[in-house]
């Protein structure tokens, strides 16, 4: 049992007696395929315990990427204990306040935290990793095609019940290939890959990054789009503009609209594919509530573009 493995780990790390009280608190958010729990040993600080399998290739990347980011002085939780043989780690407990938990706060309250998160993203852009550090496969044209196929396989067919005959002309639409080719032509910088509100923890008024095991090379605009068009937050149009203005203030550079919109399209296709997979194939019904929101955001972006004919027939099936 993963929880027992993590209990053994914390007893070994703190040299606790077998009878020493350790309270376990499940952490159920997220969909990374890992077991994550909060461990509360009596008379000691709390820890976050992570147990993972190697069924997902990115899980093995967590510890080396964490070490790299920590050495680069980015805000990430410190790894306090790890046992790669047993696929477990104990990391610093940053608390429960993430950007999603602040969703109902006024913009004036949330703005400094978004500013802090964007500063971390900008710092990542200029950070150079060791040459021997391996990341997940980069965002080349094939990776963007994979995201598109994931959308059609898991949302259109598995979740919405469309047939392969219905989806094939959509998959083959030349606008999708043009998008993947144009975005995949550049993949020089590191991207978090899942830069959304649940993966940005607020502690001491600073943004900390978590769930970065999927980090890879790609376009920075993909991470920016992931936060601006985050279905969990569902920012209204005026707030999305404030976020882009905030990004421009920090970087002194405004993203090119065409590239940002294409990255947002890709990201939302990937997210909708993930939601469809989690609901249809893994019975994770919590994600179903976010499908209409993500679909509305994607519809907004592709309406009146050459991507509309490829994507809107799928979105039209969502009630």
Describe the fold and architecture.
It is a single chain. The protein is of the alpha+beta class. It has two domains: 2-92, Phosphorylase Kinase, domain 1, CATH 3.30.200.20; 100-315, Alpha-Beta Complex (Aminoglycoside 3'-phosphotransferase, Chain: A, domain 2). Helices cover 47% and strands 13% of the residues. The chain is built from eleven helices and nine strands. It has helices at 2-14, 62-71, 107-125, 141-159, 164-171, 174-183, 220-228, 237-251, 257-282, 291-302, 308-315, and strands at residues 22-26, 35-41, 47-51, 79-83, 88-92, 189-191, 200-203, 206-209, 216-218. The strands form three sheets. It has a five-stranded antiparallel beta sheet with strand order 1-2-3-5-4, with helices on both faces. A two-stranded antiparallel sheet has the order 6-9. Strands 7-8 form a two-stranded antiparallel ribbon. The longest helix has 26 residues, at 257-282. The protein is globular. The relative contact order is 0.12. The mean pLDDT is 95.
